[in-house]
């Protein structure tokens, strides 16, 4: 039995659904070892395993270990999660365009990831819909049509308001159809999901430190780096001296208010999650999801917290234009990624522990 | 047990191989050899037959052999009845059309 052959069948088995993975891996490894006895070429076994893994119908309950209805819902949730995450990245790359050259490259990378997520989301929605009902197929088609309109509007620069109107109409119709599909779907049994409550305290501590660091860096950016980036050749003391007292006080007070409010939110998060963690009432995933959501909110409101000071500088000091620092672009990107993470963790289904290791029902062992 | 949605010549070959060994379990690769068809054709058929309840499978219980266990296949009682009917129907259809003849198993190809 060649090492390459073992790698081939192990790879084929690794792509199979969990409930049947170990069974076929062992079966194919035994076939590979016994191929000379049966007069079969080992390469034929490897090729057979690969073909099998590519053609296996993966929605059958005997293969997945869960009822078809559960599989459909899981796929639909992955589809929605991918599309929502892609939406955040699309909006982000659209608004962040024009930053420093390195960040333009990052923005392109972000758009590439958004494209991949969009395609994955559409694929998952269609896979779910094709296993569900005709109305589910209509829903997937409407979502695809809506995305198609937006792509045509943005990428092809066909700035026709009809396209945006069509995108809106299609997505509203998809939402209505989706509601009907989900509300009329038969109930499915609940499977236990993986829910780790270990190391919650450590996770809460790490998340709180990260949120505090995000606030400190955001404040430094608003008070130091952003004003310097907005003006040409002025020192920081010259910038603040150049502003009127009311503008200076109002601008700085907005930033201080932002820092105080979100420090309080981070502290509340730390206390609440620590208490819940001690009672095993919260999972590590929930802690991370909330922390990522908080981080995304901190970054989103950082822009508004610095708006007053930035406008005052743009109105008062040369070259009389707004803008953000290079760090500001990076900061906004981090905020987007945090929101993407929060969306994926909150919408995407948790890993189920029930079906693992279930053999096909027709097997006797 | 569920009826098969389609019965191809390869399916008939697999069913005939299993019918030849009715009452005993057969190693999957032995079925491949007897059918003289590639594993890539036989593996999916065995999976489909098993999922539809025509076939049962179990691990070989042979202490003399070390390493990964072989998977053995056997027609269920209902599966054997359905397999005979399917093979007969396929042969009759082939004879009527004259377009296809399944090579008898065990004969030299």
Q: Could you explain how this protein is built, in words?
A:
The complex is a heterodimer of chains A (365) and B (109). With 365 residues, chain A is an all-alpha fold. Chain A has 14 helices and no strands. Chain A has helices at residues 3-14, 18-38, 42-55, 61-64, 68-95, 101-130, 134-154, 161-184, 200-230, 236-242, 245-278, 284-305, 307-316, 326-347. Chain B is mainly alpha-helical and 109 residues long. Chain B contains 4 helices and 3 strands; from the N terminus they run αβααββα. Classes of the chains: A mainly alpha (365), B mainly alpha (109). Chain A binds chain B through residues 23, 26-27, 29-31, 33-35, 38-40, 44-45, 47-52, 55-56, 60, 62-63, 360, 362-365, and chain B through 27-30, 32-33, 38-44, 47, 50-53, 55-60, 67-71. Chain A: Keywords: Membrane, Transmembrane, Transmembrane helix. Chain A: The chain crosses the membrane at residues 78-96, 102-122, 134-156, 162-182, 203-225, 255-275, 287-307, 327-348. Chain B: Residues 39-83 form the Transcription regulator PadR N-terminal domain.
Task: Give a short synopsis of this structure.
The complex is a heterodimer of chains A (365) and B (109). Chain A has helices at 3-14, 18-38, 42-55, 61-64, 68-95, 101-130, 134-154, 161-184, 200-230, 236-242, 245-278, 284-305, 307-316, 326-347.
Helix/strand-derived category of chain B reads mainly alpha
Order of helices and strands of chain B: HEHHEEH
Kindly state the mean pLDDT of chain A as a whole number? 86
Q: State the total count of DSSP E strands of chain B.
A: 3
Which terms would index this structure?
heterodimer, A: mainly alpha, 14 helices, elongated, B: 109 residues, mainly alpha, three-stranded antiparallel beta sheet, 11% strand, globular
């Amino acid at each position: 039995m060649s090492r390459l052959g073992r790698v081939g069948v192990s790879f084929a088995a690794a792509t199979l659904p969990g409930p049947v993975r170990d069974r076929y891996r062992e079966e194919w490894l035994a076939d590979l070892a016994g191929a000379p006895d049966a007069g079969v070429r080992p390469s034929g076994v490897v090729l057979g395993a690969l073909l099998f893994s590519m053609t296996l119908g993966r929605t059958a309950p005997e293969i997945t270990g869960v009822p078809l209805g559960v599989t459909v819902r899981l796929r639909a949730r992955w589809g929605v999660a991918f599309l929502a995450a892609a939406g955040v990245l699309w909006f982000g790359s659209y608004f962040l365009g024009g930053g420093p050259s390195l960040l333009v490259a990052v923005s392109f990378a972000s758009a590439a990831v958004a494209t991949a997520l969009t395609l994955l989301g559409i694929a998952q929605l269609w896979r779910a819909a094709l296993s569900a009902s005709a109305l589910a197929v209509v829903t997937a088609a409407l979502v695809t049509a809506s995305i198609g309109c937006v792509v045509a509007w943005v990428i092809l620069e066909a700035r026709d308001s009809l396209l945006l109107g069509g995108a809106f109409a299609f997505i509203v119709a998809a939402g209505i159809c989706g509601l009907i599909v989900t509300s009329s779907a038969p109930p499915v049994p609940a499977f236990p999901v993986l829910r780790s409550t270990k190391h919650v305290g450590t996770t809460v501590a790490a998340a709180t430190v990260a949120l505090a660091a995000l606030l400190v860096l955001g404040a430094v950016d608003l008070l130091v780096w952003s004003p310097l980036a907005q003006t040409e050749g002025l020192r920081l003391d010259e910038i603040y001296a150049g502003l009127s007292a009311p503008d200076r006080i109002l601008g700085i007070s907005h930033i201080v208010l932002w820092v105080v409010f979100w420090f309080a939110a981070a502290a509340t998060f730390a206390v609440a999650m620590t208490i819940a963690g001690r009672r095993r009432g919260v999972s590590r995933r929930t802690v991370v999801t909330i922390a990522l959501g908080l981080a995304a909110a901190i970054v989103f409101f950082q822009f508004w917290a610095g708006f007053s000071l930035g406008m005052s500088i743009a109105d008062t000091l040369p070259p009389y234009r707004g803008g953000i620092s290079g760090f500001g672009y990076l900061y906004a990107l981090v905020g987007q990624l945090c929101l993407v993470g929060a969306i994926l963790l909150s919408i995407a289904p948790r890993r189920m522990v029930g079906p693992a290791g279930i053999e096909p029902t027709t097997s006797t062992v | 047990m569920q009826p098969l949605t389609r019965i191809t010549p390869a399916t008939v070959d697999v069913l005939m191989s299993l019918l030849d060994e009715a009452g005993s379990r057969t190693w999957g690769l032995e079925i491949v050899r007897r059918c003289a068809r590639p594993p890539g054709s036989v593996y999916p058929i065995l999976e489909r037959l098993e999922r539809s309840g025509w076939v049962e499978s179990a691990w070989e219980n042979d202490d003399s052999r070390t390493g990964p266990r072989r998977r053995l296949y056997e027609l269920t009682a209902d599966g054997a009845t359905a397999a005979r009917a399917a093979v007969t129907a396929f042969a009759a259809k082939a004879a009527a059309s004259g377009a296809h003849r399944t090579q008898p198993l065990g004969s030299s190809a």
